[in-house]
Amino acid sequence: MGDGTFFARDRGRHPPALTPDYRTSVTRAPARAPISFPPSLSEETGPVFGHDLLGPLDADLIRNFARPGHSAIGPRIFVHGRVLDETGRGVPGALIEVWQANAGGRYRHKKEGYLAPLDPDFGGCGRTISGADGSYAFRTVQPGPYPWPNGGNDWRPAHIHFSIFGSGFAQRLITQMYFEGDPMIPLCPIVRTVPTAEGIDSLTARLDMANTLPMDMRAYRFDLVLRGRRQTLFETRPEGG
Amino acid sequence: MHRDPMLKESPSQTAGPYVHIGCLPNLCGIDGVYPEDLGARMYADGVRGQKITVRGRILDGTGSVVRDALVEVWQADAEGRMPGGDPRGPADPAFAGFVRRAADPETGDWTFDTVKPGRVPWPDGRLQAPHATLWIVARGINLGLHTRMYFADEDAANDTDPVLARIEHRGRVATLLAQPEGPDAYRFDIRLQGPDETVFFDV
Ligand SMILES: [Fe+2]
Q1: Residue A43: which of B15, B199, B203 has the nearest Cβ?
Q2: What does the similarity note say (chain B) (predicted)?
Q3: Gap from A209 CA to chain B (nearest CA, Å)
């Protein structure tokens, strides 16, 4: 709902378009600076997705592609956190879609050629919608690192891709989540497109032993921050309204 | 009351080449997880307005077609109302306002059916020209690209559009105009680089 326009995006927070160490950007980066304009209703509104969109296994990548009685192979994990905006408020109703490689680092995709095997019980996609306080969770297996063609001996650290819809289309964001303690993180040319160490740190999920399910799965905590709205009217609504 | 930003936005990372797994799983052969892919249809039966089809391609700086891109479209209904909470009142209930499409993995073509959008107000009350917002992600694109598609057959409205007016290099306005190609059909190509680079926006 358009109840206030967005703070200008801090573009220094994001990777620049041209990052030559990530080679594909060289021919795909616009050369000219984007032209700015204040958000209008076209940008302040966005598609609304209700909980009726979700099936019972959408947020369970361990089972949502598995044959009956089977489950995906790999370290079982529970990823959870909150979607917040820049003012610190939880963002309710945010559609979060995730995709990832399997525990061996192999994607289920026609264009994928890595020699690690497919897992017949793992598709690699999941989705959920944040609750009233912005909280979300999904279950999966920890993905493996994988090599990729970038001109050298480049490997992606273990990661989960995230796509997030806020309440306005100007908040649209795709990013990646990394795992605390992974020595591959600082070596990766895609990670290194993020201009600040603090930004990279903010994309790194923390092992959360307090929320680990004993004898079942470890938990990782990952919060996401979307652009915030500048309030132009009296704030009469409760948190998350 | 006013709040200042206290947190910083999560940095973007590229959608990569396997974005279809998460965003269009049925399209890429991951069947049975979702009943259908998100953003499959812009409208349902009974939608009001002129139905149109848009076709296009995305080209990189070498002129090669980008075959792995994902495009999302967000636009007003035929009356200029935004689905998803327009403060002026509800949009056409048969109109979703949102579609998600992948470039064809062989040809790079992408297409969507929609209705020609009405005019959405600018913050000062003036009317913007009919347009759709497009958001493009792909391997090699580090931050999703926002652009707008306007219509070449809307000269009068385009001439007073406040966003198009911000483009100082007037020759670049043409990069945002979908060209009619037959009845109820338009073509809109996007060039990521080069002399005809599409205008992208920081919104
Ligand atoms: Fe990946």
Answers
A1: B203
A2: Belongs to the intradiol ring-cleavage dioxygenase family.
A3: 24
The whole-angstrom separation of Cα A104 and Cα A74 is 8
**Residue of B120, B142, B144 with shortest CB distance to A19:** B142
To which residue do tokens 């649209």 refer?
A172
pLDDT for residue A233 is more than 50 = no
Question: What is residue A239's predicted lDDT score, i.e. its pLDDT?
Answer: 37
Amino acid at B198: T
Residue A238 has pLDDT above 60, yes or no: no
3-state secondary structure of A25: helix
φ/ψ of residue A56, rounded to 5: -65, -25
Domains of chain A: 11-16+49-225 (2.60.130.10)
Give how far the C-alpha of residue A211 lies from the chain's centroid of Cα atoms, to the nearest Å.
20
Phi, psi for B23 (deg, rounded to 5): -105, -25
Domains along chain B?
19-191 (2.60.130.10)
The confidence score (pLDDT) of residue A207 equals 98
Q: From residue A44, give the alpha-carbon distance in Å to each of A6, A9, A90, A195, B36.
A: 7, 13, 17, 27, 27
Asked whether the beta carbons of residue A111 and residue B17 sit closer than 8 angstroms, the reply is: yes
**Within an 8 Å CB–CB cutoff, is residue A239 touching chain B?**
no
What pLDDT, on a 0 to 100 scale, did the predictor assign at position B136? 98
Residues for chain B: how many in total?
203
Give per-residue pLDDT as tens, B98-116: 999 999 999 999 999 999 9
Question: If you average pLDDT over residues A128-139, what whole number do you get?
Answer: 98
Q: Closest-CA residue in chain B for A47?
A: B84
The Å distance, Cα B18 to ligand 1 centre, comes to 7
A98's enclosing H/E stretch is strand A95-99
